[in-house]
Amino acid sequence: MAAAADALTVARGHRWRMTWASCFARIYDLSLWPGEHAGMRRHRRELLAQARGRTLEIGAGTGLNVEHYPAGLSELILAEPDASMSRRLVRRAGGRAAVVAARADDLPVDDSSLDTGVSTCVLCTVEEPEAALHEIRRVLSPGGRLLLIEHVRADGRWLASLQRTLRGPWARFACGCRCDQPTPDLLRACGFRAELRAARWRAMPPVVRPIVIGQAFAGP
Ligand SMILES: C[S@@+](CC[C@H](N)C(=O)[O-])C[C@H]1O[C@@H](n2cnc3c(N)ncnc32)[C@H](O)[C@@H]1O
């Protein structure tokens, strides 16, 4: 009896998360709108101008990066595992990119076959960021690079403490996003050499305001 009740609770929790994920995808662009207009859109444009050759973006979401990719990439692949997110992504991609339903830890491309990887606000959300980073190392060619914008753990004591306090509720609201992800440390631990600068995600909630922008190389 107790086991059946537990199974029912788990099933209800799962159904609720699925329903919320679908709502979250619908409100995603609207909820980011203030931040996009206060500077994130410019950060995306400046970062993605550096994309070259065969390029793959993980967790491409609703496709807010699509308009910023330079013309002349040899191939653009947008990977997104969430069907609700990818509906808008497919529309935004039009004919210029291939959209694939793939997780960052299981990318449908060969070893050393990419010139550029892209991750914007994704390494906070993937369940196993180390597995995702190892997979990205697998698919990047020697000399290839990962372009990143990620919100991260705050340096300041007050904001770091607020992030710790709101970690749980924020993750429930933002479909698993960890507001205090130590992404620069994860990159180093997974063998990347990162060149990142700190910035602010203006006009967004304080817990996601500290961001890093830059590139990471898989080689020495
Ligand atoms: C906060 S959104 C970022 C979307 C987009 N990159 C942007 O800059 O607006 C996080 C995205 O990561 C995706 N995601 C979650 N888990 C993932 C995983 N294991 N592998 C790849 N993407 C994942 C989500 O579906 C969602 O689209």
Q: How would you portray this structure in words?
A:
With 220 residues, the chain is α/β, with parallel strands linked by helices. Helices cover 42% and strands 21% of the residues. The protein is built from 5 helices and 7 strands. The chain has a 7-stranded mixed sheet with strand order 3-2-1-4-5-7-6, with helices on both faces. Strand 4, helix 3 (129-139) and strand 5 (140-151) form a beta-alpha-beta unit. The longest helix is centred in the N-terminal third of the chain and has 47 residues, at 2-48. The chain is globular.
Index terms:
220 residues; single chain; alpha/beta; binds S-adenosylmethionine
Strands of the widest sheet, in order across it, are 3-2-1-4-5-7-6
Give the overall shape, derived from the CA principal axes: globular
Q: State the helix count.
A: 5
Helix-strand sequence: HEEHEEHEHHEE
Hetero groups bound? Answer: S-adenosylmethionine
Mean pLDDT: 95
Give the CA-CA distance, first to last residue. 57 Å
Number of strands: 7
**Rg on CA atoms, Å:** 18 Å
- Tell me the major beta sheet: 7 strands, mixed
Structural class assignment: alpha/beta
Give the DSSP E fraction (strand runs of 2 or more residues).
Answer: 15-25%
Helical residue percent band = 40-55%
Low confidence ranges: none
